[in-house]
Design brief:
Blueprint lengths: L1 E4 L2 E6 L2 E16 L2 E24 L2 E4 L5 E20 L2 E18 L8 E19 L4 E12 L10 E5 L2 E4 L7 E12 L3 E11 L2 E7 L9 E7 L2 E16 L2 E18 L2 E19 L4 E10 L2 E3 L2 E3 L2 E12 L4 E8 L7 E7 L2 E7 L5 E8 L19 H5 L7
Parallel strand pairs: 11-15
Antiparallel strand pairs: 1-2, 2-4, 3-4, 4-5, 4-6, 6-7, 7-8, 8-9, 9-12, 10-11, 12-13, 13-16, 14-15, 16-17, 17-18, 18-19, 19-22, 20-21, 21-24, 22-23, 23-26, 24-25
Length: 406
């Protein structure tokens, strides 16, 4: 990659090699009126990043030692869990506990201009879960649940390399980034198993967020850089409703709506952070059934102005269309999906804290057209029951491979 900044020319080579090894084993034992489960998982990840920048000076390329680095990160996570659930008359109970030990090592090798940096973290955490449900009658039930969970940073967010966005801004990782921990409590009422109302409360410590900072090496503070840090505590409280809708014999739908308040509070680099906002979102899916095997689906969502990770976001909305036809005497299905056909989805927002006051607008082309064909081989064209879905043992680790902040 190359970039022209004023009278200078800069190019960089930023390869990244990530190796992931995982092992997972689960045990399930039925017991009277319930089930006992246990399991173990171990994972090892090695992230090797070599970053080399060069300046074009005096007719030749010369290595920029200040911007170049070599960062190695390895992480070993070992976990064991137990879970038990049972039913007693109108009551249902479930309780579980997961114990995790994480050993992480980071090493920036350094060079003549950049000092060597190392860190090691060895932490053990407990993640309990609890669930209690009571059937009020044949149509109504109440459920209370609690859980503690962890959200670890992406591997690239831990990488301290510099990635230039333009002549006045760049992106940099943070080797001191810590995981964020969340306590979540929910109270749910279900009517006829279809109309669901949920009150939720969750609290998060050490929120991982993108943040814009002035470059301390630039005296006039014109240059900004984007990084990721643990910036504040976060509290979310809301109520959601899920309801099916039957308009006619050939038109049915499902509506999900959520009204919630987000509150970020803390201190970052001596700057007080105190942002709160109440907003709502709605998600709808409509299904239309026509004659001769034809059907259609219209879905979409709208989220009003909100606050997400210190960013004040403008409304976001999108629509998708699906068409379906049964063929081959019902044994085959031909489907056409069109995502965001009018390119409505865009991202606009404002970052405003301390000395940072900036707007952004992004309109990625998310339109997508897909066609699928499925053929059922079961007796009389009936599809066999789908197998139980299980995530890959390395799914969590693969989700952390993407670019930081995504």
């Amino acid at each position: 990659a190359g970039q022209l900044a004023g009278h200078s020319l800069l190019r960089g080579h930023l390869p990244s090699d990530i190796d992931i090894f995982t092992f997972k084993s689960d045990y399930v034992h039925p017991v009277k009126n319930g089930r006992f489960e246990a399991g173990i998982k171990t994972s090892y990840v090695k992230n090797n990043n070599r970053v080399r920048y060069e300046n074009y000076l005096n007719g030749k390329w010369e290595t920029d030692l200040v911007r170049s680095n070599h960062f190695i990160y390895d992480e070993n996570i070992n976990a064991v869990y137990v879970n038990y659930n049972t039913e007693i008359k109108k009551w249902s109970f479930q309780a579980g506990l997961r114990v995790e030990n994480t050993i992480a090592n980071g090493h920036q090798l350094g060079n003549q201009q950049v000092p060597e940096t190392k860190f090691r973290r060895d932490t053990t955490n407990l993640f309990p879960t609890a669930f209690v449900s009571y059937k009020l009658d044949d149509k109504n039930s109440l459920t209370v649940s609690y859980g503690r969970r962890i959200n670890r940073p992406n591997y690239q967010d831990l990488n301290p390399f510099t990635y230039f966005l333009d002549s006045l801004s760049f992106r940099q990782g943070n080797i001191y980034l810590r995981p964020q921990y969340t306590h979540n409590i929910e109270l749910t009422h279900a009517f006829m198993g279809k109309y669901i109302t949920t009150l939720n409360f969750n609290s998060t410590d050490d929120v991982i967020s993108q943040i814009i900072k002035p470059d301390p090496s630039n005296p006039d503070n014109k240059i900004r850089f984007l990084t990721v840090d643990n910036v504040a505590s976060f509290r979310n409280i809301g109520i959601s409703v899920t309801a099916p809708v039957k308009v006619t014999q050939w038109w049915s739908g499902n509506i999900f709506t959520n009204v919630f308040n987000n509150h970020y509070k803390g201190v970052y680099d001596t700057t007080k952070v105190d942002l709160t906002f109440t907003t709502f979102m709605i998600n709808m899916t409509h299904t239309f059934t026509f004659g001769k095997g034809f059907s259609a689906e219209l879905s979409g969502f709208y989220r009003h102005k909100s606050i997400s990770n210190l960013t004040r976001m403008e409304p976001i909305y999108q629509m998708s269309i699906g068409l379906q036809k049964q063929v081959l005497k019902g044994k085959g299905t031909l489907r056409l999906n069109i995502r965001d056909p009018f390119a409505w989805q865009k991202f606009e927002g404002l970052n405003q804290y301390g000395r940072i006051d900036g707007n952004f607008s992004a309109r990625p082309d998310l339109r997508q057209v897909t066609t699928t064909f499925s053929w059922r081989f079961g007796k009389n064209g009936q599809q066999n029951p789908p197998p139980r879905r299980r995530n890959s043992a390395s799914q969590d680790e693969q989700n952390r491979v993407g670019q930081g902040g995504q």
